[in-house]
Amino acid sequence: DVKVTQSSRYLVKRTGEKVFLECVQDMDHENMFWYRQDPGLGLRLIYFSYDVKMKEKGDIPEGYSVSREKKERFSLILESASTNQTSMYLCASSSPSGRGTDTQYFGPGTRLTVL
Amino acid sequence: GENVEQHPSTLSVQEGDSAVIKCTYSDSASNYFPWYKQELGKRPQLIIDIRSNVGEKKDQRIAVTLNKTAKHFSLHITETQPEDSAVYFCAASIGSTLGRLYFGRGTQLTVWP
After folding, report:
1. Residue of A nearest to B2 (CA)
2. pLDDT of B16 higher than 80
């Protein structure tokens, strides 16, 4: 069974703090993704990675960066947290089938509140 | 890039009735269309998917239909039950090996007993 874990379920930070959200998957998946989920806006892709040290911007990368030093771990970094980054953050991973029919497996999410 | 629109945003049905959620996509190169279900407080999980070479796929009470010409696809749930209450997301993929999915904004389905 695929397991995707995230470092925290709930996180409260102050404006201006540097925030690290970590995601780990145990299925040797090549692809990993970071989304934020807000009511009425669905799942918006922030960044994704298709290999170690490789990354691609999603639809809303501003204010975020990512790091993938090891295949199983994908970190989302908020360099200077702001209140408009208060959200639910979901990590996902998938293994490329070569046909683009890849199931994404999601982590449980991190509810981040920036005060 | 691809743009996926999903309707309705909320849907309420009586237990036993059918529910239909519709999505449209913009990129004719899209060839894979999964549906994810997210129960309250839980993570999204794949419930059914369809590829562009198939017009319909069924799995027990859920089915998905695809109209490539019109670029829309739909999720059909029959004999709804309270446990079907959740947010449903449609998505589309252009078949890239990078595995990126383009999600709709979601439909909150509520099934009343």
Report:
1. A59
2. yes
